[in-house]
Amino acid sequence: MSATVDDRPEVHAALAATRGQAGLAAALRWETRKLRAQLRSRALLLGALLAPIAVVVVVSAQSRPPKDTLFGRFATENGFAMALLVLGFASQWLLPLVTAVVAGDIFASEDQHGTWKTVLTRSVSRSRLFWAKVLVALGFGLVALVVLAAATIATSALVVGRQPLTGLSGQVVEPHSALLLVAAAWATMVPPLVAFTCVALLFSVWSRNAAVGIAGPVVLGMVMQLVGGLGGIEAVRPLLLTTPFEAWHGLLASPRFTGPLLEGCTTSLVWSVVSLATAFLVLRHRDITGG
Amino acid sequence: MSAGAAAVEVVGVTKTYAGLVAVDDVSMRVAPGEVYGILGPNGAGKTTLLRMLFGLIRPDSGEIRVFDRTWADDDVRTLDGVAGFIESPKFYPYLTGRQNLEGLRLLDGTGLPDRVEEVLDIVDLTGREDHKVGGYSYGMRQRLGVAASLLRSPRLLVLDEPANGLDPGGIRDMRALVKRLAAGGLTVLLSSHHMDEVEEICDNVTIMRRGSVAFHGTIADLRTMAPDPGHLLRTGDDAKAVVVGRLRHPDIVVEPSPDGGLVATGSERGLAAYVADLVHAEIPLLAFTPTRTPLEALFFMLTDAEADPPSRPVVAGACR
Ligand SMILES: Nc1ncnc2c1ncn2[C@@H]1O[C@H](COP(=O)(O)OP(=O)(O)OP(=O)(O)O)[C@@H](O)[C@H]1O
Ligand SMILES: [Mg+2]
């Protein structure tokens, strides 16, 4: 520690001029940089790109198609059916997991590394940091979904083909419309994915533990799926966060119905708002004693 | 900031953790430009007080003003011109030293990229700045913590036991750096449990024990209050040495030490005369070493965990 501190007047003037709060954009840039530097997030995106390719290639090579699954019967001979088969599978547990890996860790890792005190003693407020993390986690979840969807649809079309699709009511959908419908079906994953991200964020803030932050939403999703599979729970079903993952079925029926889609949006919105509001309050009021 | 405002003004601050009073009605004032020490044994409440200053935890009652700003009114702007670290500084292990600093600069809202190189140079981390922090030694992380603080070009530097865990060379460098920064006009608030550190660096000191203030004042005041130094004495005939002390030197106290030998306590002049008499009485003198410095002795007196805390702090000099 040899040199002296810079006390040139111009340095002080420049610092005084810039002294103040870091904006949301600065916090966002910081969070994005950290995410990009993490091996895990890059590996996850690479997985989202490569896994569907492997799945499509393997399933299409089967002599007997997976008949018990939605669109499984046509999956080996129709690329659109294949993309919908993968969608049904991904929505069961893969999407909550993919988004939770980042969202469940993003707050808890500050506890794990003891870095809350490092960032909160700069010029960024807890609220800004909170929203920056929320946006980065949501952004990552959406990017992962887009990569997964694009890789699935493209590989299915290339490997299996772009034949006319037989819809859920037995109607025949021409390839051009089928492509739009398949893309729309993948897009309906956005609301529940956002909601699962917010739930993971809440787990992350509340538990201060990355393992709980990641596993929590996945386990919650599985429990909801089990509950959703039970009979006689019609009143509860719309409240479950896994129900919106099935709302795309209506798009593939004839005539189309969008009721479940709208209901799913509402459910996802409620889960998102409640989770985020709770997470915000917990973070805002907690004492940072660790690190 | 109004004219004459304190750099830090702590008024009646209390913080309780699940029934345990970590900081108990503490008040103190740090004037701009001074080097202020908060001294206390483990668990005295130093870190808790500094965490409250940084807004990491909220006091149950009382107020902390930093350059006339408070968390209640100004939120994070309370930290304008303030930098430092609490306990050992922590960074993102998967980022390099430079990436950590670049990121923190973003969170400062300041736009002087050159400053990163400059502070790396100040703390002698040049050459290691592009290595991941996960591979840094404890001392390197401590220095990166100082660099991260200087990055903000602070007016007030708050350091929580900055020399903790450093080797003697690191401690020397850290103290030299703090003194140099203070000489440049920076206000420094530093916590420590080493009297010698505070004595060497600070102008004013608050001594804490069990959450309360046990002493406020200048180092000079502290020195005048310090008890006479005690010396460990090893002689060829301890019994005779005690008798010599009792008969001929009533101004000093000579008693057996629990660790063997004798402890003689008294003024330097009295001790010198006593030692001369021992030699004169042909009692072999094998060792004569100070037990602890006078200020250390005072520190132990003020913060002794066994004794009840003083109902009111000892206040000396210009401080409240
Ligand atoms: N998060 C916490 N939960 C419960 N008690 C706490 C917490 N943090 C601190 N304490 C208690 O508050 C008291 C003051 O602790 P603090 O860390 O402020 O002391 P300190 O003076 O910094 O000690 P040290 O020299 O060991 O760093 C201690 O009794 C400690 O056990
Ligand atoms: Mg401490």
TrEMBL record, chain A:
<keyword id="KW-0472">Membrane</keyword>
<feature type="transmembrane region" description="Helical">
    <location>
        <begin position="261"/>
        <end position="283"/>
    </location>
</feature>
<keyword id="KW-1133">Transmembrane helix</keyword>
<feature type="transmembrane region" description="Helical">
    <location>
        <begin position="178"/>
        <end position="203"/>
    </location>
</feature>
<feature type="transmembrane region" description="Helical">
    <location>
        <begin position="43"/>
        <end position="61"/>
    </location>
</feature>
<feature type="transmembrane region" description="Helical">
    <location>
        <begin position="81"/>
        <end position="108"/>
    </location>
</feature>
<feature type="transmembrane region" description="Helical">
    <location>
        <begin position="129"/>
        <end position="158"/>
    </location>
</feature>
<dbReference type="Pfam" id="PF12730">
    <property type="entry name" value="ABC2_membrane_4"/>
</dbReference>
<feature type="transmembrane region" description="Helical">
    <location>
        <begin position="210"/>
        <end position="233"/>
    </location>
</feature>
<keyword id="KW-0812">Transmembrane</keyword>
<protein>
    <submittedName>
        <fullName>ABC transporter permease</fullName>
    </submittedName>
</protein>
UniProtKB/TrEMBL annotation, chain B:
<dbReference type="GO" id="GO:0016887">
    <property type="term" value="F:ATP hydrolysis activity"/>
</dbReference>
<dbReference type="InterPro" id="IPR003439">
    <property type="entry name" value="ABC_transporter-like_ATP-bd"/>
</dbReference>
<dbReference type="InterPro" id="IPR003593">
    <property type="entry name" value="AAA+_ATPase"/>
</dbReference>
<dbReference type="Pfam" id="PF00005">
    <property type="entry name" value="ABC_tran"/>
</dbReference>
<keyword id="KW-0813">Transport</keyword>
<dbReference type="GO" id="GO:0005524">
    <property type="term" value="F:ATP binding"/>
</dbReference>
<protein>
    <submittedName>
        <fullName>ABC transporter ATP-binding protein</fullName>
    </submittedName>
</protein>
<feature type="domain" description="ABC transporter">
    <location>
        <begin position="8"/>
        <end position="235"/>
    </location>
</feature>
<comment type="similarity">
    <text>Belongs to the ABC transporter superfamily.</text>
</comment>
<dbReference type="InterPro" id="IPR017871">
    <property type="entry name" value="ABC_transporter-like_CS"/>
</dbReference>
<keyword id="KW-0547">Nucleotide-binding</keyword>
<keyword id="KW-0067">ATP-binding</keyword>
<dbReference type="InterPro" id="IPR027417">
    <property type="entry name" value="P-loop_NTPase"/>
</dbReference>
